[in-house]
C-alpha cells in the first residue's frame, strides 16, 4: 500500500481490527486498522488510513503514522483506534519489540488522518504485562480510562482490564482493575496453541470497545474464539459503570470467523458495527453491518448496501 489511490472499495483494502472515526464537520469517515501486509513479523511499517464520505468509496492509503527515528518498537503494529478528546485526535495502538512486553501506547495528531506522533512515554499499560488492544472510555464524571486486554499468552485465561488515565492521556494512574476473564463468556472456547501446555485451558481476549446506549446501558464488545472460529460477544455492566460487575451474553453477536469490532456513529445518526473477516492473513477485509439499539443492547439490523 504505497501512494494515494481513489475509489477503493472495502474489497480492495487488506485490513485487520477496523476502526471507523466519524468526522461530522467534514462529512467524512476515516478507516484505521492494522494495515501492514504481514502484521505478524518484523519489520513493521506503520499505520495507513482511508477516507470516505459514503462508507463505500475510499481514498487512500494515507500514511497516518510512521515510526520516528529511534522509536522503540519495530514489530506488531496492531489495532489503532482514534478518539477525539479535548480537541485533539488520540491514537491508541499496540506495539512490541524484541525483549519488550507488548503494550498500548498513545499517539496524538491535530487532524484525523495525522500524522500521529508519540504522546505517552512508551506503553501506558503495565510494563511487565503482555497487553494489547487498548481503547478509551470516558466515564460519566468525565474521567478517562484505558480498557485493554491482559494477554492469554501470559495469564492463560485472557483478561479485560480497566485503568484510569491522566486527564491529558499521557500516563496511566492508579492500579489496574480486572473486569472479567474470557472464560466467563458461555460462548468462548479454549484455544489450542503450541505455547499452551497440555491440559491447560487457554482463552483469548481481544478488542474491547465500549458503547453507551441511549437508555444508559454500558456495553462492551470484545472478541475471542467460539464454536465456529474467531467471534465477537457483548458484555454489559450491571452497574452502568466501567467498574462493573460485567455480565456476559450467552451467544456472540458475531459467531462466524470474524471479530475485533467497534461501533461507529454514522453521519445520519445510525450505528455501524465494524469487524474484520476472515481471520486469515492476507485475506482479511473490513465488514460493516448496521446496528440498532433494542432492550438495552444492540442487535444486527441490515447490511449497509
Automatic annotation (TrEMBL):
CDD domains per the UniProt record, alphabetical: GH43_Bt1873-like (cd08981)
The UniProt record lists the keyword Amino-acid biosynthesis: no
Pfam family name, one: Glyco_hydro_43
Assigned keywords, A-Z: Glycosidase, Hydrolase
Annotated InterPro entries: Glyco_hydro_43, Glyco_hydro_beta-prop_sf, Glycosyl_Hydrlase_43
Gene Ontology biological-process annotations: carbohydrate metabolic process
Keyword Lipoprotein included in the entry's annotation: no
Domain of life: Bacteria
Gene3D superfamilies: Glycosyl hydrolase domain, family 43
Record family assignment: Belongs to the glycosyl hydrolase 43 family.
Name of the protein this chain belongs to: Family 43 glycosylhydrolase
Source organism: Microbacterium saccharophilum
Single GO term (MF): hydrolase activity, hydrolyzing O-glycosyl compounds
